[in-house]
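Researcher: Please predict.
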Amino acid sequence: MPDAAHPLESEPLYLPDEQLRLLIDEQFPHLAERELGRRYTLEDHFAIRIGDDYGALFPRYADRDYLYERAPELIRPQARAWTFPASFPIAGGEPGHGYPCHWTLVEWVSASTAGFVPLHADSAAPFGSAIRQIHTKAPADAATNPHTSVSLSRLARRFEELLSRAAASGAPEQREIDADATRTVFERGIAAPMDVDPTWTHGRLEPRAVLSDRGQFAGVLQWHNYGSGDPAADLGYATNLLPRTDHQALYDAYGAISAATHARIGAFQVFAALRHVSFEDPFVMRLAWERLLEMDLAAEA
């Protein structure tokens, strides 16, 4: 199976609205009268709103097909116990009308994303509680998450590529990223043992996958990577959504975290921040640089 932590190189798939309409109406006829709304395009998928209450997510690359095919059945047993708002796959769509991939139907949650309206301090506790609910123990034969099941050592080459790109782009306020200090955080995580059992994980707790209602935590989106992995990966991604002063509140709500897991969290945080710096979304880039500056990983040029 492909490693989603590495960049995609094939040409992305595209579906015109006419083709989307055919797929949705044929497979979910109860939505045939619902108007198709705005399209939201990210690196690996796009989402489209269907009326007021539903949406659909379509992979932009054929090698991600297996994630969308398995998602509804994989998530359903765990999601029954969740108490936080979540727009997770409720039904699966089949390939058709020239589109080669499976896709997912979701309930639409109306709110901004944390990338556009950053979370306030009082969102740290409900966000941490939501992550804890996601992180139940996964069985030994559980399907793996392509982001969180990848060991930090396997991400080392990609980390160096992202670090070089961030150094070339430059940080805000006439600063430069401190490559040695950033690498030290990442290598500390590599050296830390995996001292917890794998759990179910989200795999994409980035600013565009977490909802914000005027700064209040309002839910989690984009569950197609869902699977077994290292919980430190989700926590590392999540810490980029909150100022460093709010991390302890997130951890307190989450529960006990070992020293080794904290080290891995730091490594996943800097890896995720560097990924976000490479995105073309200015809001996500801004949040990522804010976290790196808070960690003293950028200095005066």
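Model: Residues 259-277 form the longest helix (19 residues).
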